[in-house]
Design goal:
single chain; Rossmann fold; 4-stranded antiparallel beta sheet; 9 helices; 11 strands; 21% strand; binds adenosine-5'-triphosphate; binds iron/sulfur cluster; binds magnesium ion; membrane; cell membrane; ABC_transporter-like_ATP-bd; AAA+_ATPase; ABC_Ni/Peptide_Import
């Protein structure tokens, strides 16, 4: 399949100089057309920072310190998102890539009806469309996400959390973007609701053909719904593989721990063991592999040399890559 978004050597810092927090380090990730990619990792591992970095929504003092983000539009030449002008960026957001933020269900404007908010998004990008046209489109979007059209006249507080979340997804789909990024859209919702909403998004993806980057702590959700999973630790992607492979045979000891931290999807529930220890201090990273102080399998080179994430297929098997001295890169 063709690539849609190629992230290369991306570094993101908060602040400058010696005090900078290195929140994202040397991230390489490709999202293909129509693909659902999951991004997992503990709190503070840099997931949101990566999402904001690639969409140019980093709050200050966040800066992309290095790298490129190449977007391949359906027609025309690829371009680097990081060098778009403010005007080009406005056109790019919503229409090519849209993002549903962490805690999005609380980001609807409480004083406006659902209809107004949906129609405003449509209007901003298609000022020529008639009001009737916008209303029809707003109805269509609600239907798409499984909400009755009479809810158009509701205010956000009249909707359940799950419905508000779905309205946000409808809004994200309003301009038929090629990529929808969802940043932990479901933390505040219960597990059943999380599964429903993610399931629905994946079903829409099948019908409409967009790609999804889905960010969560909950690896079991990703195993169920995504095609491929990237796992972050201390700002770096430490493993990337097809979901089934991660589930069956995680190669990075951190992936293994993360997988064990969530209950099994089917069959007997496993013990929730978690990963002992705490995430690294991004201002003062451990030497070598940043996971070594917590790694049950750490050995000779681990505290001295940084393991590099090879290109997929370099070593550990088809379409997989892992940054760990247990699986050194042999090719390339
Ligand atoms: P969570 O699962 O809790 O959402 P995350 O993986 O999304 O975590 P980020 O929010 O990307 O993590 O944060 C990555 C690191 O960057 C954290 O150590 C965080 O403290 C730091 N960070 C985030 N925002 C800022 C900021 N505005 N200024 C300084 N540091 C920040
Ligand atoms: Fe553990 Fe070493 Fe692999 Fe890091 S490189 S995950 S410390 S075995
Ligand atoms: Mg986050």
């Amino acid at each position: 399949t063709r690539p849609l978004l190629e992230i290369r050597n991306l570094d993101v810092d908060y602040g400058l100089g010696g005090d900078a927090v290195h929140a994202v380090r040397d991230v390489n990730l490709t999202i293909h057309r129509g693909e659902v990619v999951g991004l997992a990792g503990e709190s503070g591992s840099g997931k949101s920072t990566l999402a904001y970095g690639i969409t140019r929504l980093l709050p200050p003092p966040g800066v992309v310190a290095n790298g490129s983000v190449t977007y391949h539009p359906p027609t025309g030449d690829p371009f680097d998102v990081l060098s778009l002008s403010p005007n080009e960026l406005r056109a790019f957001r919503w229409a090519e890539t849209s993002i549903v933020f962490q805690g999005a269900m609380n980001s609807l404007n409480p004083v406006h009806k659902v209809s107004t908010q949906l129609m405003d998004v449509i209007k901003a990008h298609d000022p020529g469309m008639s009001k009737a046209g916008r209303l029809a489109r707003a109805k269509e979007l609600l239907k798409l996400v499984g909400i009755a059209e009479d809810r158009l006249e509701s205010y956000p507080h009249q909707l359940s959390g799950g419905m508000r979340q779905r309205v946000m997804i409808g809004m994200a789909l309003a301009l038929e973007p090629q990529l929808v990024i969802m940043d932990e859209p479901t933390t505040a919702l219960d597990v059943v609701m999380q599964r429903q909403i993610l399931g629905q998004l994946v079903e829409l993806r099948e019908r409409l053909g967009f790609s999804v980057l889905f960010i969560t702590h909950d690896l079991s959700l990703l195993v169920e719904f995504s095609d491929r999973i990237a796992i972050m630790y201390g700002g770096r992607i430490v493993e990337e593989a097809p979901s089934a492979d991660i589930y069956r045979e995680p190669k990075h000891p951190y992936s293994e721990g993360l997988l064990r931290s969530f209950p099994a999807l089917r069959g007997a529930r496993r013990e929730l063991s978690g990963i002992p220890g705490s995430p690294p201090d991004l201002r003062n990273m451990p030497t070598g592999c940043s996971f070594h102080p917590r790694c049950p399998k750490a050995f000779e080179p681990c505290d001295k040399k940084l393991p590099i994430l090879g290109k997929p297929d370099d070593h550990v098997g088809p379409h997989r890559s892992v940054a760990c001295w247990l699986h050194p890169v042999t090719a390339g």
